[in-house]
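Checklist before submission:
- one chain only
- standard amino acids only
- sequence pasted in full

Submission:
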Amino acid sequence: MVRNLSQNPSVLSQFLAEIRDVNIQKDSMRFRRNLERIGEICAYEISKTLQYESVNTTTPLGESESKLLKEQPVVATILRAGLPLHFGILNFFDKAENAFISAYRRHHKDNTFEIALEYVASPDLNGKTLILCDPMLATGSSIVLTYKALLKRGIPAHTHLVSAICSAQGVEHVKANMPNTNFTLWCGAIDEELTAQAYIVPGLGDAGDLAFGSKL
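Returned file contents:
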């Protein structure tokens, strides 16, 4: 299932517009905060799909029945760009376990590249709800390879993939190549164009550099 959150107007549109804006992007703290806000919105939407149980809460004046999560999800992110989005999700699922994966584009002299994974830290995932976030879903290769690497830690009951901006091509790649069909892809927005260098247009540029500074 693919959920494009931009299809229904909300305050999410403001945060997406600001992370795209070349002038607002100059403020890296604001860029990180807006990604965090997008993560919070996605976490709230995901929370509606999870299972709950009734728990009695004692107040100063009596008892109140509350619906609380049966189980906390595991929140995973692709370093480094995914960290603000990750912490936004963690703001809502503050008791969740966490997983971190290092993935990057290893460029070659002929202008091609491959996705390299160098580090995976994850709890047991068997039967759990996994939320895997990456702010930009361009070709879709990174998130699919990351998910396959995480399967070595167990098979999730359901996986939620979260990206602020996706390309239409990347969405189709994920739909065709995810090894487990039991997943939901949450997109802040879906852009139609992907350049020959695999950058989303209009997109927003390099989310990692905008959040944390340029790299060598």
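Reviewer check: The first strand starts at residue 2 and ends at 4.
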